[in-house]
Each structure stands twice: as C-alpha cells, then as structure tokens.
Design goal:
alpha/beta, Rossmann fold, Serine Threonine Protein Phosphatase 5, Tetratricopeptide repeat, DNA Cyclobutane Dipyrimidine Photolyase, subunit A, domain 3, 48% helix, globular, binds flavin-adenine dinucleotide, Crypto/Photolyase_FAD-like_sf, FAD, Cryptochrome/DNA_photolyase_1, DNA_photolyase_1_CS_C
Length: 468
C-alpha cells in the first residue's frame, strides 16, 4: 500500500525517521506543503524562504534518484492543509500519512487537525520524534516539570540518551518507479530582498554533509579557542541546514562522537562543547512545548511582562541599520543585514544592547533577527533573545550587562571584523577601531555612541529593579 511522507523541516533522505519507516511499509510518495505566507506571518524573511525553496528542489532531486515522486501542495496558510492533504492522499491512493513532529505551537495545532481529519476518514497517521532525541514530556525534572535551566536538562539528556535514539537510518533503497505519478515542477517564488548568495548557501543534505565533514576535520578540535571570535571561521556554520532539517542532529552528534572516542559529554572538551550546543537546540524545542506562552510573544518570566520598554523608533532604526556608534554592535548588525547570518557572540552582544542599553522591547529585536536570518528558528531565536533580555529560561541575570566596547576588545582584538563590516573604520588604527574618539568620528563620518554605556546600564538596572 502506498505511503505518503510529508517533508517539513526535515528536508533530507538520509537519516529521516518518517521516510525510513514509511519505506518499510510500501512504496513512498513525498509531499511538501509550500505555505510561504504562513511562514511570513510567523516572521520568516526572504533569506530563509529562498533557502527553503532551494532545499525543496534539492530534496526533490535526491528523491528522484530513489524513484520517489515529490508532490507540492501550495496554500496561503495552514488552515486548508487538512483538506488538501487528505485530497492528495485519496487521489494518490495512499492509506497512511507519515511525518516527523515539529514543536511550534501553530505547527502542533496544524498537525493535530490533520491527524484528526485523516483518522476520521480511517486513514492512518504515523508521527515520529526525529528533530530531537527526546519526545517533549519524556525528559522532565525530578518533580515532573519541563526543565527551565539548561545544565540539569543537559545532564539528564546525557544520562538518559540511548543507542536507539542515536541510531541513524540510511536513505531507503530506490523503489520501482510509478508509471502514474510524477514529481511536481519546482516551486517558483519571489522571496523579495534576498541577500544570501546561493553559492555560499548551497541547499540540501549533500552540502550539509560537506560542511559537517570540513568542520570536523579542520575546526572542531579548536572550537573552544575560536568560537567566540567573529573574525575567525571557527564554528560549524550548520545552523541554517539544521533549522530546515537538511542535516539531522544525530548525524552531527554521531560524527562528532566518532572523533571523540565515542563520548558525548566527556573526552575532547572542544567536541564536548560543540555537542552541547546541539543539545541547547533541543532544550529550546522542549521549552516551546513546556511553556507555550513563549510561542505567543510572552516572556518566560511572567513578571517581566510589566517592563516599561522604551518606545523610540529612531533608536530602534539606528540599531537595525548598525549606526549605534558602538563598532562591534554596528559591524554585527551590518553582518546580519548584508549576509543573512550573524555570529553567536554577536547575537548576544547586539541583543543585549537593544534590550538593555536601549531598553527597547526584545520582541522587536527578535522579529528583526527572524526577518533577516537564513537560520531563523523560533526556539533558538526566542530562547536567545529572552536570554539576553533577562526575561527567559536560564537567562542572563539582569545586572550582567555586556560592555560592548570591552566585548569588542576581547573578541575582535585586532578590529578585523569591525573593519570588514564598518568600512568607515577600516583605515583607522586597529586599537582605535573599538571605540573611535570624537575626532575620528568627525573625520570618518562614523557616528559617536548614541548612548553612554554607564548611563544606559544604570537606566536598565533601575528599570529591572522596579519590576521586582
Ligand atoms: P555552532 O557553534 O557550530 O553550533 C552547532 C549548532 O548548535 C548550531 O548550528 C545550532 O543548531 C546549535 N546551536 C548553537 N548555539 C545554540 C544556541 N545558543 N541555542 C540553540 N541552538 C544552538 N540559532 C539558530 O539556529 N536560529 C536562530 O534563529 C538563532 N537565533 C539566535 C538569537 C540570539 C539572540 C542568540 C543569542 C542566539 C541565536 N541562535 C540561533 C543560536 C546561535 O547563535 C546559532 O545557532 C549559531 O550562531 C549558529 O552558528 P553555527 O551553526 O556555526 O553554530
């Protein structure tokens, strides 16, 4: 009997749990639901949609080699998908739908509706835990609650992870070709203002595997030394591929463990740290399910909902454009808007600058990031923003406010990164690039700092104190 596999943020054939199990039961037909407007409503921008579209093309090509046709359902939003998927399953004479679970609130609601609709018509639905190791709700604190702090979550993850969860599945063998079903034509979609270059961001699982292999060979063993320095290429750069499931967390963790004597939480501290980052990713997926309010623009720490954020459009625009007068902040924001990606250290620095120095609502920054990031992902982005704004799970304590100049001196000591993204300062002596004086600003046209660090820090402290 024919099996319908719905690919979502798991755009790969290798190590895809739903695809693997479906192929054991009968001939497979793939489907993707192209709902760009829904994703735009969720805040995703052009770079991510472009990468997504190309990822579907790469998936279709790979599936083609396995004689698995890929059908495309186009819809404005999620609402019509139950009917559309059901109609497709009936037309193609499939008796079961398979998919890997996703954890955003709207996605879970959508999947529930679709499952009910299929069951109602006596069609089977098979759902799998694939994007993370533990089904949300199966890894809880001693008193049965979702973790809200990473370290105990991490320890429990390491303690409970089993060989079955780490087991990878090969792509299925090629099946006999259908004579009555062919793949749909590739999606054409004008995503708008795309800044990512397709050569730098090749979509698909083969490109992801290349990146992983290069990272593990060349950089993983020095991850701890280099990971905080934005001018270095020291991290994996895999986030966009992970976000759309062009590579699985198992493929990442198993490949890293293989170079680490099989260890996940011991051994080479570099590999251990990198593996722990992949577990951070999972932590935030559990947070989405355990604390649904974070899906709905609410802070995790509810009392911070009363914060009197400043509404200052001009200040917000200066942050967005990278004209704050703090060179590392500005270089980072320009990296985001001109390349569609930002280094992790800088995501922390810029998010803290907006939410603390400018005291502007973190949700505005969260949305701006999502609009530009090629790797934009609700769990990690929301988690990162709420961490920086001290409103989240395991958040930075509100009084720990990064000094953006000190951060620049520490993590871009030669000012190389600043020079790359803030050309006004490229010809200024390296040591003055971190905090150009008034005369340098005058000469170069670079802005003087829009706020004084100490005064801004004090203002933030007072605003947070007033909450408690
Ligand atoms: P590596 O250092 O190679 O890490 C490997 C993988 O681990 C990453 O690809 C990512 O999947 C995961 N990971 C690493 N750090 C984190 C983290 N702190 N939280 C969750 N997962 C992590 N990551 C996203 O994937 N999408 C986002 O939208 C996103 N928004 C962020 C917003 C803020 C304010 C902050 C502070 C962090 C955000 N992150 C986000 C996490 C992190 O910055 C990126 O995952 C990382 O910079 C991607 O680079 P990399 O692939 O080279 O990471």
């Amino acid at each position: 009997r024919r099996q319908l596999v719905w690919f979502r943020t798991d755009l790969r054939c290798e190590d895809n749990t739903a695809l693997h199990h479906a192929a054991q039961r009968g001939p497979v037909i793939g489907v993707v639901c192209w709902t760009p407007h829904q994703w735009q409503r969720h805040g995703h921008g052009a770079n991510k949609l472009d990468f997504w579209r190309r990822g579907i093309i790469a998936l279709s090509e790979y599936l083609g080699r396995l004689n698995i046709p890929l059908k495309i359902i186009r819809a404005e939003g999620f609402e019509t998908l139950p009917d559309q998927l059901l109609a497709l399953a009936e037309t193609l004479e499939c008796d079961a739908l398979h998919f890997n679970d996703e954890y955003g609130l709207n996605e879970r609601r959508r999947d529930r509706q679709i499952s009910e609709r299929f069951h109602h018509q006596a069609l089977e639905v098979h759902r799998y835990t694939d994007q993370i190791a533990f089904t949300p709700g199966s890894l809880l604190t001693g008193d049965g609650r979702y973790y809200s702090v990473f370290t105990p979550f991490y320890k429990s993850w390491l303690k409970n992870i089993g060989a079955d969860q780490l087991q990878q599945f090969d792509a299925p063998e090629a099946q006999p070709a259908f004579d009555d079903i062919t793949s749909d034509a590739p999606i054409e979609f004008d995503a708008g203002n795309v800044v990512i270059d397709a050569n730098d961001w090749p979509a698909g699982e083969e490109a992801a595997q290349d990146r992983l292999a290069r990272f593990l060979q060349k950089r993983a063993h020095h991850y701890d030394e280099g990971r905080d320095f934005p001018a270095m290429t020291a991290t994996s750069g895999l986030s966009a591929w992970l976000a759309l499931g062009m590579i699985s967390w198992r493929q990442c963790i198993n490949a890293a463990a293989a170079r680490n004597g099989g260890h996940l939480g011991d051994g080479d501290s570099n590999l251990k740290s990198w593996i722990s980052e992949i577990i951070w990713r999972e932590f935030y997926q559990h947070v989405l399910v355990g604390f649904p309010r974070v899906n709905c623009h609410q802070p995790f720490q509810e009392h911070t909902g009363a914060m009197a954020w400043r509404e200052n459009e001009e200040d917000f625009q200066r942050w967005c454009e990278g004209n704050t007068g703090y060179p590392l902040v500005d270089a980072a924001m320009r990296q985001l808007t001109t390349t569609g990606w930002m280094h992790n250290r800088l995501r922390m620095v810029t998010a803290m600058f907006l939410s603390k120095h400018l005291l502007i609502d973190w949700r505005r920054g969260e949305a701006f990031f999502l609009e530009h990031l090629v790797d934009g992902e609700l769990g990690a982005n929301n988690g990162g923003w709420q961490w920086a704004a001290s409103t989240g799970t395991d958040a930075a304590p509100y009084f720990r406010i990064f000094n953006p100049t000190t951060q620049a001196r520490r993590f871009d000591p030669e000012g190389i990164f600043i020079a790359k993204f803030v050309p006004e300062l490229a010809n200024v002596a390296a040591k003055r690039r971190h905090a150009p004086d008034a005369a340098t600003c005058q000469q170069t046209g670079y802005p003087v700092p829009m706020v004084d660090h100490r005064a801004a820090r004090q203002r933030a402290l007072e605003a947070f104190k007033a909450l408690s």
